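#structure-requests
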Amino acid sequence: MTPSPKTFLERLRTWAPPVVLFAVLLGVGTLATRSTYSPPDLLRLTVLYGALAAALSGLARRLASRGTGAAIAGALGVGLVVAWHLQEQLRPPSVGSTLSTPAGLAWFVGLALLAATAQFLAVRRAPPPAPGSGRRPLMAALVLLVVLVTGYRSTGTFRWHLLRHNKLVGTPAVHLLSPTVGELEDEDYARRVGSTEDGAPPVVLRTGVALGGGPFPGGRGEAASASPEASDRARDVVFVLLDTLRADALAQWGGDPGLMPALNAFGEGAIVLGDLSANSSWTRPSVASFFTGLAPEEHGAAGWAWAIAPEVETMAQVFGRRGYETAAFVANHSAVDGAGGFDRGFDLFEPLVAVDGPYVRAEEVTDRVVAWLADRSSRGASAPLFLYVHYLDPHTPYLSSGPVPATVVSHGAAKRLYDDELRYLDRALGRLLASLEDSPRRPRVTLVTSDHGEEFGEHDARGHGQTLYSEVLAIPAILSIDDPLVPRERGVVPGPLEGRDLFGILLRAAAGSHLPIRQLAERAARPSRAATVSFAKAAEGAAWRYLLRPYRQRIYARMLERDGWRLVWSAYGDTHELYDLRRDPGERRNLAARRPDLVMALRAEMDAHPPVWRRTAAARGADRSLDRLRALGYVD
């Protein structure tokens, strides 16, 4: 029997609100990410959002039958849910308008009112609920709860999708069903700090290499102890670090040749380490790995509160023991500071403090270093030199394009501002490189590299220090030796390296090693690579702000890469991600549920690396004003 037009319209008005709500919830959860869902996970998510839409719409409809006031309350509830879902999934984490800003609050309230108005009009036009239908919202809520709990506990990939791409339901679930990130990280360190795999206390050499530990391939201790005094063959060493520089910003890594012409020209006449991975995705632990040749868990400076362990010898200390004069000029003195042990071994460690603005710009850094080099030359200094120069451009905030709004939401707009920073930085860096070329005194080793990259939406986020994907771990490294007794080397070394491997390569190259850089790098190539991120975003006393965004409060994750596979474990929800980098270089398809055997094997190797963990509290008195840390994006 064909239903009457009236019956058809009544059914349409009854079912349209939950169907539209379901489509919005599912569409945002699946389309607002570049990651892909497996069919089982997509089915679970469909049922989950179907139950949520049915429960919300059914409740709003029941409230509407009790009067206008109740109808408005029900509609506002639906509006708030929709607005929060859109806010969390369409706004990149760590950027854009937040509820603590007038613009963010206005955007959120506007969305909520728009959704609430649509819901109110829909339920007011719908027929009254049929007798006995009052249990439907309760049944839908029960289905929602069962699917959420069973799905959260059953497969790691579904839990990961909930936490990363469906925060509307993932955030309540992580509060109820998972330990906190801090608890898992502290538990990890409590098991490992101060012991080796067999439980015996570590024996630490002067070079900082623990017996039973994982030394630099080819011998980190050998590199640090070789040539204990400066010889006639000792070379000056200039270590230039460009904070936050992505590898693909340079032509040698597929970038625009016109973006950084001076650095690209330098790379054309030098050795390019084409597959270098940082040991962390933010500055402090990554630079500490450069300075010590150790993983973040080994050297100890994995987070803000921790420092390079006192028994670990730094690169500057090794050079000082060899008779070098050592100097450092550091624009990012919030992360690379004396309180963290980074000044150990430097005759001069100069934090470059901005008089006006969040940090000292590249031109000023170059001016200061060039002036110091000229003064040193006039003094007739004869000792070999180890010079560390740390530029902070192109770190946020982007200053080269004039006043920039604090809430740049578009990834494309942010990337254009980042590129403007690179152009500005390249001019200042070019002056420094030219100054070094114009004043040759003794053979020189020059390294230009970065501590980490930057995300621009490749995995729905922006910035760094949050994840362990390629866009934040892949870093450029260009190494040149200017020595009249050695032919100049050029070309790309493709072997897989970690940031900490530069420790041994630099020390050997500085000592006048007879081996070419290419051979030094090839000897250091690793069968597997690891990285760790440990980061606290919350300012002291502000933890309450993260009840709805716990993923921002504290971050702890570890990565292991072997044979073209990358495993990422995160303490947020205790999740695993597994990527086949040969078929999926963009890391879009999480295969952890399909290859549990491989997850277990890589996780076992991850848990065994490194065998020695350290934690040493950083000294008090670090120069870290909250305003400066906020400007740099280190705290919210």
